[in-house]
Amino acid sequence: MMKMKKSTKIILSVLILIAAVAALWFLDANKNQYSYAISILQRSAIYAIAAVAMNMLTGFTGLFSLGQAGFMAIGAYTVAILTIPVEMRANVYYINGIADFLANLSLPFWAALILGGVLAAMVGFFVGIPVLRLKSDYLAIATLGFSEIIRAIIAAPQLDRITNGSYGLKSIPAFGSIFEVFFIAGICILLMILVINSSYGRAFKAIKEDETAAQAMGINLFKHKSMSFIISCFFTGIAGGLLAVFMRSIDSKTFQIVLTYDVLLIVVLGGLGSITGSVIGAFLMTAGREWLRFFDNPLVIGGFQVPLFRTGFRMVIFSLILMAVVLYYRKGLFGDKEFTWDRMYNYFIRLRDRIRRKTPGREDKGNV
Amino acid sequence: MSDQVLSLEDITMQFGGVVAVNNLSLEVNKGEIVALIGPNGAGKTTAFNVITGVYAPTNGKVSFQDKPIISNFPQGKMKKLYSGENNGKYTELIRKTPDVITKLGVARTFQNIRLFKNLTVFDNVLIAKHMNIKSNVFSATLRLNHKEEQTMRKESMELLEILGLAHLKDEISSSLPYGQQRKLEIARALATKPSLLLLDEPAAGMNPHETHDLTAFIRMLKDDFHLTVLMIEHHMNLVMEISDRIYVLDFGKLIASGTPADIQSNQRVIDAYLGVADDE
Fold first, then answer.
1. Chain A 325-344, CB below 8 Å of chain B: which residues?
2. Under an 8 A CB cutoff, do A213 and B52 touch?
């Protein structure tokens, strides 16, 4: 395997970072023109947090949980309830009114976001006590159930004066600047990388590899599983909070099981056990869906209307692409490896060699 | 404190109607190498699983360094089903989990190697150092435990050097040859700083040459790490050469115990291994 110089790699990474910031700055400067692109990128960044959080649980600790949507809902509702401007509240809760203790309770966005994460983590702690004793598919089923329970509680008429029940919440203040969401996503993902590479992260990996052996190495299974679950819930809650601010209006239907599947799809597409895979997967998935909008519009060629091109068709194409990915990249785009410059460099070298070999007349005859 | 490191008293392990280990009592003293032998299915590995807390025995008591770590008596459904002896002798209920028993100083290897297959050799050993971590998850995340992490890494590296695996440290553990995997599993067990090491068929799958080296290797471990060793093994040459004492199990029951010389001349052991002629 060829290796690049360390300095080259650093320069490349810095260049990418500068390019990303410059691109964001450019988009910010031309907000009106590129509002669509900005919103796709923001949604991608939010999904990236949720995907990395899920990957930490599924790809690194081996716990297959399908509760993401429920924990996102907790974060989202916390942020929404606490940041809707006090003077707008009568308007939002116009049917049932707002609970007295909430009427004037308001927190700055940052505090509400962290509180949302903490609440999701707390619920995660209590849900984890019974649920983490289950293994594999059973854990997935149980967490899926809890996620739906959380959604049902939010929509319950008894909580109308807090969550506004099935009417949902609107008038959630938007992000201050477009950098905000990327900045938060960067910090969250960085923190999760640090957890995964710490001694605790190694214990998580050990549990995923072999529970019996991990336990024989003195690792307390329940403690470490719930630790991983709680941390994952915290960041899922943060992602939910960001989603609320991004969407500006939410209701309990926003957090249906489909949301969990979206995140799961990103994780599987990027590769279980690959953080860079999840991040890149989040951007590819979110953007990919939009690129395919082309298929949703009727297409007329020379007076002939091509069949199938109508609303919803893009999801068919999207599913086909996903199936192809799952069939040909069984372990996702990155498997359980991380993106590195070395890997990319080698990929291009191999690609070049392959093309050279195929091109007639340019074969290296001495080297066959 | 007496010299006794491990003692099993009247351990019976019954799965449904099957008695896998029947009224097994044994003790291992400090600094000894003790072997547990017997034909296939005699209950040797089950005994290991009881000692390390993987299975709760149906009846009996296990003590480590004179403190009881496991004690159980037939309960629930087993009250009716129990077909072993000494029912009612034990009334205490102590059940330490495998991780707690490892922390007390009992380390083990597995019959069918259980390495963390997709992780590197170094990580395999480093993970075993995690159990004594002092810093919490927050300071570990923010890398405030630099010193502790450094110590863990240094100790793991030293261990790999002693066992001659240092040059393989960045290899994925499943890519190692079989013999090295066995060695790595022992290295990983040693990283938990045990006082008692349980080896489950350390020579399984090794060629005669490797088996021969293993004798010296186990002796070296015992002396350098001040260990007491209890091992299950089928290679009789190895067992006879290295053991101070031997226990022989057959169909879950202890049929003989004593020095290698005693065991070699014991008629019951010979019968168990070779079978008894049927007189019709």
1. 336
2. no
> In angstroms, what separates the C-alpha of A207 from chain B's closest C-alpha?
9
Orientation angle between helical segments A35-55 and A68-83, nearest 10 degrees: 130
Give me the residue from B114, B131, B191 closest to A213, CB to CB.
Answer: B114
What is the token pair recorded at A234? Answer: 């915290």
Tokens describing residue B86: 């000494």
Question: Which residues of chain B does A203 touch, with a Cβ-Cβ cutoff of 8 Å?
Answer: 127, 130
* Residue B185: closest C-alpha in chain A: A213
pLDDT, tens digit, 9 for 90 and up, residues A194-209: 999 999 999 999 999 9
Read off the pLDDT of each residue in A336-355 and give the average, rounded to a whole number: 83
pLDDT single digits (tens) A81-123:
999 988 888 888 888 888 888 888 889 999 999 999 999 999 9
Higher-pLDDT residue of A337, B96:
B96
pLDDT band at A366 (very low <50, low <70, confident <90, very high): very low
What is the number of other CB atoms lying within 10 angstroms of the CB of residue B118?
Answer: 14
Phi and psi angles of residue B145, each rounded to the nearest 5 degrees, phi first: -105, 35
Specify the pLDDT at position A360. 57
Please give the residue of chain A at the shortest CA–CA distance from B142: A194
Q: What is the CATH number of domain B1-105+194-280?
A: 3.40.50.300
Kindly list the residues from chain A whose CB atom is less than 8 angstroms away from the CB atom of residue B117: 209-210
Rg (CA), chain A: 23
Whether B107 and A216 lie within 8 Å, measured CB to CB: yes
Domains of chain A, each with CATH number or no CATH: 38-358 (1.10.3470)
With CB atoms and an 8 Å threshold, state whether A217 touches B137. no
Q: Give A367's pLDDT tier (boundaries 50, 70, 90).
A: very low
Q: In angstroms, rounded to a whole number, what is the distance separating the alpha carbons of residues A298 and A314?
A: 12
Q: What is the DSSP string of A314-357?
A: HHHHHHHHHHHHHHHSTTTTTTTPPP-HHHHHHHHHHHHHHHHH
> What is the maximum alpha-carbon separation in chain B?
76
Task: Give the pLDDT score at A312.
Answer: 77
How far apart are alpha carbons B23 and B16 in whole angstroms? 16
